[in-house]
Amino acid sequence: MRFFVLLFVAGALVAVPLESYKPKPLANLQQIMRGIALPNSNIIFDVQSKPPKDEMEWKTVENAAMAIAEFANLVTIPGRVRENGQPVPVHRADWNRYAQGLVSAGQACYKAAQTRKPDAVAKCTDPLSDSCSNCHDVYRDRPEPAADTKKK
């Protein structure tokens, strides 16, 4: 009898349509910055002072680069808020452009890590730093700018 109950429950779980899942943010912007972006960017930046010693360490650098690229998806999910409760400005063209910069920087660092050459990774760190600074210069600890055209 238990077998049939378990079979029924398993069947019901499988029958849930996948389209019903809609991603929604759980953490605020600062939490994902500190939990994902900061530690993974540090892994990449640290290659310059402490190059990976083995394949496992190189894989860690590759994974960090992909985490940075995927982080852009997280900062563009509608409904995420900043630590102060203000919404993340996902509707703004510059915000999305900065997010795309993270994707490009993460992908470049991933390709660099695949070469297993610390010098190649060092070359990707300036674009990575710039992609972070572009957004921070406009949005960190500041209210939303008045126009999409504001650049720094």
Question: What are the main properties of this structure?
Answer:
Four Helix Bundle (Hemerythrin (Met), subunit A); 63% helix; mainly alpha; 152 residues; globular
Describe the protein's architecture and organization:
- This protein is mainly α.
- It has one domain: Four Helix Bundle (Hemerythrin (Met), subunit A), CATH 1.20.120.
- 63% of the residues lie in helices and 0% in strands.
- The chain has five helices and no strands.
- It has helices at 2-14, 29-46, 55-75, 93-114, 118-139.
- α3 runs antiparallel to α4 and α4 (93-114) runs antiparallel to α5.
- The longest helix is centred in the C-terminal third of the chain and has 22 residues, at 93-114.
- It is globular and about 50 Å long.
- The relative contact order is 0.13.
- The model is unreliable at 148-152 (pLDDT under 50).
Element layout with pairings:
Layout (H helix, E strand, L loop, with lengths): L1 H13 L14 H18 L8 H21 L17 H22 L3 H22 L13
Helix pairs in contact: 2-3, 3-4, 4-5
Distance between the termini: 68 Å
**CATH class call:** Mainly Alpha
**How much beta, percentage-wise?**
under 5%
- Could you tell me the radius of gyration in angstroms? 20 Å
Largest sheet data:
none
Describe the structure concisely.
This protein is an all-alpha fold and 152 residues long. 63% of the residues lie in helices and 0% in strands. It has a single domain, classed as Four Helix Bundle (Hemerythrin (Met), subunit A) (Up-down Bundle).
